[in-house]
Queue: 2 jobs
Job 1
Amino acid sequence: MGDQPEAAHVPSNDPADPLNDQAPARLQKYQYDPIGNSKSIRMMTLSPGRRDDPLNGKLELFEIGPSLSSGGVDSPLASKISKGYEPLSYVWGPPPSNGNHQIAISTGKGYGSLQLTASLYAALKRLRYTDRERCLWADQICINQEDPAERSEQVQFMNMIYKYADHVLVWLGQDEKDPSGESVAESAFNLVRMLDEKFQDEEKRKKFHAENFTEKALEGQSRNLWVPLDRLTDLPWFTRGWIVQEIGTDAPATLFWGEAEIDWIVLHRVCEQLTDYHYLRKKFDIRTSQIKYVFRRFVEPPKDSYHANRFDFIYEFHRARGLNVTNQCDRVFAMLGHYSVSGPNFEGKLNEKLRDMKADYTKTPAEAYIDVAERALTGDTSLIALAAVQHPFLPPSVEAPQQPNDQVVDRNKLPSWVPDWGTYQSFILSEPINPHSAHGTTSSNLSIDKTKLILSIHGVKIDIIEACSKPLEAKSFHLKSSSHEPGHKPEHVIKSLWREICLKDDFNLEDRYLNREPTFFAYMQTLANGCVQIATRDNRPYDESFETECLVKEAMHIEKALGPDAIAPSLREMAKKIKTKDEWSRAANGASSNRIFARTKKGYFVLGPNVMKQGDVVCVLFGGKMPFVLRPWERYFLLVGECYVHGLMKGEAIDLLERKDLAEEVFHLV
């Protein structure tokens, strides 16, 4: 039987040997035995061999008892855990094509052949012991990839497999040679170890800081030293979708790149230390953020920390948008083992509908995404699923069909209210720990027509978009020492938006906004999403005292950006109250990147999606901490996306509703 154990066969180098790579046609294709239940997994025992010997091994079934899923060790898999098993994490690469990459799997009466990708084949050759067996788990071998039902069933165990592993083996790929013939992998790992040593020695760390922290210090520094680290952080494994759960646990891990290897903890520790060296990372293309992102991503952080966002499943989906997958359904299925699915969010609320979601490879990506959106919206009172909608393109309302609800629904396409997890435009303004509350005390009130895919949701209409900027570029508000010189980009952006969209000339504290706050304050708060990033990062109360401090930071920024002669005396005096680093530009750059600044007919300032247009509708939907922009589509609407609207972020729209200055409506989104 295909899954029955047999004594290992050590192959020879004889071309006549049926296990020899030189005679692949001699072996029949391996036939998997059905697993037979929903509580077992296969493990592979890889036979020993020299580097040039063909691969062979055996597969065994092990039942996963309920105690394992809760962290116990008294399950039938406990014996395998106690002996130690090692799951592989690797990039699949192109599918098998020429039959040269195979492994012979014991059938109990002989061997059957499994074709492997070149990547896994190279990994097994590198990781195989020469003198003893090695117990491994590799999805390409231990799951029948030709059986969608089995794949769907086995995916649920993957987080468990990596979480309780004795050791995770990461295969980064084959090594390369630099122009001098030296190993790039060895050079990269040696550089990482050298940096790790420096950062742990106080004197060496200070010296490194002095030589690498500022732009001036980096002038004339050769790129050659940093090329190996650039090559390392650019490897495709670091952006592979499945690695979030494979490397994101507490299990120890080693990274293998050709013959070189390094401990995962060491690499992450160095990347963490390099966080503050912005100019160094930018100049030499050192991409550390992705390594920091995946590190222990499947380990619960303290719920009172800045990382409490991770307890929200939709937020975790959004953060994974930049990863690469072969099957787009895996953008959903690769995250199903995350604690945000199975447990409560940081407020203690559990979405049981999301918890019950299972992988199903018979679904199209659109069907999987629609399923997530429906469960998120109907199983919770939050509207973060709508906030995660980010369209790269949205048709203008003039292209709307006459009867959209009477047409046959194409379930391979997404309604405007369902996030496409394969696209990324900006970070979510409605982060779970975000203190904004445009919805006041209201909870979501919605229904979904699953046949026609129409979302009907209650809320209030606020105003119409009248003027829009172009999409704002990343780091539009970044300051440099020469930022007040004529023609400098940040000066142009901050002045042109003020003049062309706000219809103002002078920067002062006397001009008043709709809510009687200084118009300057409303403008700067809108560009920075109310500066909530500063408050949440420092775990500070988002109150009137904080807003007063924000105004001072904003005055300080505008003086540095434009120069003291370009602003009113009142702002110059305000800017003198504190001397600190420019925190506003960081908050504004993060919030406004790839978004549009706009003004409504009534005069509200809006920071909205990059597809927002004149004529779009601003509304507050019950249950949404941020307002939303909708686009008229005959008698329906398209969801354009979430937005910040100054003067509506503290429940003011609900107050107007209670005073009957606004009326409740039902918006039908298609």
Job 2
Amino acid sequence: MSLIRRRKGPEILESSNQINKPDEDVNKKKTKNIKSKNKWSCIDSCCWFVGCICTTWWFLLFLYNAMPASIPQYVTEAITGPLPDPPGVMLLKEGLKVKHPVVFVPGIVTGGLELWEGHQCAEGLFRKRLWGGTFGEVYKRPLCWVEHMSLDNETGLDPPGVRVRPVSGLVAADYFAAGYFVWAVLIANLARIGYEEKTMYMAAYDWRLSFQNTEVRDKTLSRLKSNIELMVATNGGEKAVVIPHSMGVLYFLHFMKWVEAPSPVGGGGGSDWCAKHIKAVMNIGGPFLGVPKAVSGLFSAEAKDIVVARAITPNVLDVGLHTLEHVMRMTRTWDSTMSMIPKGGDTIWGGLDWSPEESYIPRKTKQGNDTLSKGQRNINYGRIISFGKEVAKAHSSEIEMIDFRDAIKGDKVANSTCRDVWTEYHEIGYGGIKAVTEYKVYTASSILDLLNFVAPKMMTRGSAHFSYGIAENLDDPKYEHYKYWSNPLETKLPNAPSMEIYSLYGVGIPTERAYVYKLTPSAECYIPFQIDTSADDDEDGSCCLKDGVFNVDGDETVPVLSAGFMCAKGWRGKTRFNPSGIKTYVREYNHAPPANLLEGRGTQSGAHVDIMGNFALIEDIIRVAAGATGEDLGGDRVYSDIFKWSEKIVLPL
């Protein structure tokens, strides 16, 4: 008979404690792991935020595309009344048909770029879009994307082992991203009267490169010349209507000089090539004389939109991610950005105590929209950069300026830990940064010296491809160099008296003209300067200074002065810049926002990109493409003070 013995009480407790101890240790480890998993980094927040926006956007886009096409139109008509016919439908009813072949020249950032060769981190992206489309790689592998979108800092061409090339065809720039049109609406309306790919050509190019380097690397200018010649030859000898947009305006100015110049630097077409092949150049939102926005972009990787974003989500831009530092490193390798630095110096843009637009200030309407109207106070917009609100408004005699040009650079801003976000500011050191702030005020003339001081590598490359002055003698042989060809103040229009040039742009939107800056509190590993968002001027209801930005009339990107001056005065009639007397026309489109969300970006927008869907602009373009002249359109149509401001500019013609 077996004996059954009971465990003693203490022994039972002791053994049970020993059994439970491992369980407790496991639970503690689990709790610790859960806590560690719950830590939420800045990168997680950024990715989550971007992911939510993208998911919401794609979901709304899916719903919009899934519903029958008649539903949005029905709802819109129920709210606003019957919609007008699109310009293409209306003009088809009038009997307009295809006549002149049409060439589109896209601007900066609106053309798609795709990968042809890359590093290991870009595996699987062959011929996938790095720019345009979904922008999926931006948030999937952001540093790899920056690496491949950057150009070589010495040559301005491809870095070793990387080939990014422009997308070809009409799809290159019809949509910038899904649902965000650029050229698509204009193309669709031209198709209504019979246009198709044999009568339309998208002159896609790598907008990061300097204009001459697009020919050196890709033969883009040669292909543009050949395609225009082919289209003219296959369309009964009808000359082409060229439609450049934004920076594409400067690119085509360069082309018109290149095509006439002898090879190998030029296209060898001769002095009459433009007269034989081009009926009209219809420039949309052209930054002929540059834009102040380019200065803030190169100086601190900022613009008005960035200032607003910083105010809403400062951590995303300024802490941990170094977003703007990466953007600056990338964009400062793009030589094309330097084509839009303001041209003409103080003669065009004004000095310390004057500017052409000085009597004009933005005001708010009863509806709360920022519009522009005349004011009693004179605002000096000539000071493109001012360090401090008081400096921006003081008389020049009250400002003590210490010259920065001979300042000793040194005392590095950062050490090797900042190499991932290294910019040229880390080379000039604290001494150079202090010297920049002590100069206090920069006009269009001194801006060039400033950029040469803070970004010498970039400006050394840029000075080989672009120029920003005013020619004294256009017959001087030095102006045969290609670096002058995109500056309308340093080159002549072609000898083509039958050709027409239009300046088409939006007005009625506050547009960046000058900036109030401050020194960044923490400079290590950061861009040392930033727009001072605390600088506002709403004392009497005016908003000429808002979030550190002075605004004037324009299309939200290009001020009226830059878009309209050449056609209003510089090229008007026979001048030294227009010796053959090519007819010029200024056509402005007064901005009207969409009446409701179902109108999308509106059909009367004057904004820099949204104007591409403006029905009045599209109608003007189609009429000219179908054979009309500027006189048939009614000549100039002006809402701004462009002629008044142009008269204030003393420029020998």
